[in-house]
């Protein structure tokens, strides 16, 4: 396995603090494991790989202070930086104004400004 392709965290135990009280187990793990797909988190809980106080648990379990959550090893892909060429001719042609802190671009309608799942 190429170490640059994925990172595996070791199994660990987490003690629920006051900030996690009354949270559902699934929501607690979703906040803790940013970048791990929800479907993967739900599968780990369903398969019993995530344990609370040594026992299998369900996703809707409400946590209390002092609960000990056993977290299995998780493999995640490292975020790769997005490389943009310094000189992007199409962008340079559309620049109306540019200084050290501001760039104004004549953007055509329908062209996305932000990435997201709802974009074509």
TrEMBL record:
CDD domains: S4
Coiled-coil region: none
GO annotation, biological process: pseudouridine synthesis
One of the record's GO molecular function terms: pseudouridine synthase activity
UniProt-listed InterPro entries: PsdUridine_synth_cat_dom_sf, S4_RNA-bd, S4_RNA-bd_sf
Residue stretches making up the RNA-binding S4 domain: 23-82
Protein name: RNA-binding S4 domain-containing protein
Originating species: marine metagenome
